[in-house]
Amino acid sequence: MKLATFNINGIRSRLPRLLDWLAREAPDVVCLQELKADSALFPAAELDAAGYGALWHGQRAWNGVAILARGTQPLESRRGLPDDPDPAQSRYLEAAVDGVLVGCLYLPNGNPQPGPKFEYKLAWFERLIAHAQTLWDSGAPVVLAGDYNVVPTDADIYDTRSWKKDALLQPESREAYRRLLAQGWTDAIRATHPDAAIYTFWDYFRQHWQRNAGLRIDHLLLSAVLAPRLRDAGVDTWVRGEPGASDHAPTWITLAPVTAAAKRSSPAGGARLRSATARDRAPARGPDRRRAPRS
C-alpha cells in the first residue's frame, strides 16, 4: 500500500496538477489538506473518473481536508476532533481504507505569534494529542497523516535564522509534536531517512524552491501495529517544480501487505479496527460523503 499526504493549496485551481500526480504515482490512499473550497465544489466526478473514491470536508476559501482511495470508497469514522469548540474549521477527517484507519489532519498554522492564532494552534494540538492517545490505545493499525505545521527539529529546515519567530518553530509547537511522538508513534520519514535533509514545503518567496530552501512540516505517523510494515518513505519533489504547483510536495510511505500468517497470529487486529471505526463513526452528511456516479 502506498499512502500519501499532500497539501494541495486550492483543489479547484490545482486539480490538473493533482490528476497528473495521481496518474503518474498511483498512490492507494491520499490525504489532502487546504482544499480551500466549499464542499459543494469538491471535484468528486473528476476524481471518480481517475479511479478514486473520496470523502471530503470542505470550507469556503480556507482549510478543508479529504481522503481519497484508489478503486474503493473510504469508510468514514470521524469528522472533526472530539470536543472541538470551532467545528466550522474543517481540519480533521478519519476513515478506514483496506484495513488501515487513516486520520487526515491540517493543524493550524498559528501565525502571527504570540497571539490568539498561536493559542488556537496549541489548543487544537492538545485535542489531537488526546484523540491520538485513544487511537493508540485501541491497538488498531492507524496512520495520522497531514500538514502538521511543525518543523520538529533544526534538521528539518534549511536554515532557522529567518524563521526564529515563526509559529512552526516555536518551542511550544515542537514540544507538542514531541509529546505526540512520545505516545509511541513512528515518524515514517525520519524512521526511513534518519539523517537526510528532507523537505516537504518550499514557500513562494526568495527563490526558496530554486535554492532547495525547504521545511519538513508534512508528516505520516504510524501506530505500533503498522510501523513494522513500513518499507519506504519519500517526497515526490517533482510535483513542486510543475507550473502552478502547490508550495507543498506529496509525502508518501509504502507499507508491506499483511501476510496470511500475521492475520492468523493476530486475529484481534481487524476487530480492533472495526471497533475503533464504529465507536467514532459520524453520521452521513449529504454531499460530503457521496461518491460521484460513474458516467
Notes on the structure:
The chain is α+β, with helices and mostly antiparallel strands. The protein has a single domain, classed as 4-Layer Sandwich (Deoxyribonuclease I, Chain A). The protein contains seven helices and twelve strands. A six-stranded mixed beta sheet has the order 3-4-2-1-12-11. It has a six-stranded mixed beta sheet with strand order 5-6-7-8-10-9. Strand 7 (100-106), helix 3 (116-138) and strand 8 (142-147) form a beta-alpha-beta unit. The model is unreliable at 264-268 and 282-295 (pLDDT under 50).
What would the CATH topology be? Deoxyribonuclease I, Chain A
Widest sheet, order of strands: 3-4-2-1-12-11
Distance between the termini: 28 Å
Residue share in helix:
25-40%
Percentage of β-strand residues:
15-25%
Judged by helices, strands and strand pairing, the structural class is: alpha+beta
- Weakly predicted, low-confidence segments: 264-268, 282-295
Total discrete domains:
1
Query: What is the CATH C level class, in words?
Result: Alpha Beta
Q: In sequence order, what are the helices and strands, one letter per element?
A: EHEHEEEEEHEHEHEEEHH
Q: What average pLDDT do the residues reach?
A: 91
Number of helices: 7
- Kindly provide the radius of gyration, computed on alpha-carbon positions and rounded to a whole number of angstroms: 18 Å
> How many DSSP-defined strands?
12
Largest sheet composition: 6 strands, mixed
CATH architecture: 4-Layer Sandwich
| Backbone shape | globular
- CATH homologous superfamily caption: Endonuclease/exonuclease/phosphatase
GO molecular function: DNA binding; double-stranded DNA 3'-5' DNA exonuclease activity; endonuclease activity; metal ion binding
Site (Interaction with DNA substrate): 248
Region (Disordered): 261-295
Domain Endonuclease/exonuclease/phosphatase: 4-248
